[in-house]
Amino acid sequence: EKGGYASFMLKEIAEQPKAVADTLLGRIDETGSLTLDEVRIPADVLREADKVVIVACGTAFHAGLIAKYAIEHWTRIPCEVELASEFRYRDPILDQQTLVIAISQSGETMDTLMALRHAREQGAKVLAICNTNGSTIPRESDAVLYTHAGPEVAVASTKAFLTQLIACYLVALYLGQVRGTKWADEIRAVVRDLSSVPGAVERVLETMEPVRELARSLAEKDTVLFLGRHVGYPVALEGALKLKELAYMHAEGFAAGELKHGPIALIEDDVPVVVVVPSPRGRSVLHDKIVSNIQEIRARGARTIVIAEEGDEAVAPYADHLIRIPATPTLLQPLVATVPLQVFACELATARGNEVDQPRNLAKSVTVE
Ligand code: F6R
After folding, report:
1. CB of 308 within 8 A of CB of 339?
2. Its function (predicted)?
3. In degrees, to the nearest 5, what angle opens at C-alpha 89 toward C-alphas 108 and 359?
4. Is pTM beyond 0.80 here?
5. How far apart (Å, rounded) are the C-alpha atoms in residues 203 and 61?
6. Which ipTM was obtained for this model?
7. 136: Cβ below 6 Å to ligand 1?
8. Which terminus, N or C, of the chain has the lesser number of Cβ atoms within 10 Å?
């Protein structure tokens, strides 16, 4: 069943290039336009939407945080992302012009289901992004875009997360296409970039041996911190969540710009800090800022584990460990930057003697609020 892998998690990490390719399949035509027939919400409703609200939990919430950057950049529609468990209790402002996106691998998460029910009661249209055919969340939504990750058995979400990101990018681009924003050329270019993602993820997977070795060497540590900026910030949160749930270690993700507002006090000698570095091309101001963050923490004794694009030489002098990922457009970087963090958490958990497919106290689908 595990196809020769030591765990379902390792198998599912390895399946990511295919999961991504399957989720793109049939949704982009030869001209680079999107054909999302399953989004049954009428085009005029999508054109008139004045706000997008994303609700989700855990890893799916992190996908939503990344989606916000893409949706706002490509469509200029304001987008909020909220933990499903918090959503309905704060009396959120929703109406017929609100498009709610509910993201869920299982389609059975009670917090997410209750959030979408609340949204529909207020007249909002709900689009589900879901990996499980015919599950409750898509059944109760106005439309569904299925991720084609295949069954995910390990409790920790890996391939479902990458396909949730793909689905979010597709929805963002589709909204841009339907609304005819001024980003049309960029949107066409991104559609082309998406088709190279399965190959890029494959290349990351081929270079993971040093990451495994590094993870094993950190098995005795108490804390690992994760830093990122822009879309690298939710990637940092996801890296920390994976480590908590699998390795039972204290792990925290921060926006790198927040360091000096508190977290830098946590930096002490030899504490491992994983830093997700944005591309030096594109929005290079982000890159320069994070390079100085790396210098700051290193000066205070941190052991820097730097995830950076191939060819990014500026960070190399400050990296105690350098993990290379293929060059991607800024907004798509989470698709490749998350993979080493999954491998890192899985290997560290194994080195600590933990059962990676069934972490203590956790269930694959959380059907109570
Ligand atoms: C983390 C993880 C959980 C789920 C969360 C939502 O690895 O698996 O955080 O992402 O419980 O589950 P779904 O996507 O099924 O709604």
Report:
1. no
2. Catalyzes the first step in hexosamine metabolism, converting fructose-6P into glucosamine-6P using glutamine as a nitrogen source.
3. 40
4. yes
5. 26
6. 0.98
7. no
8. N
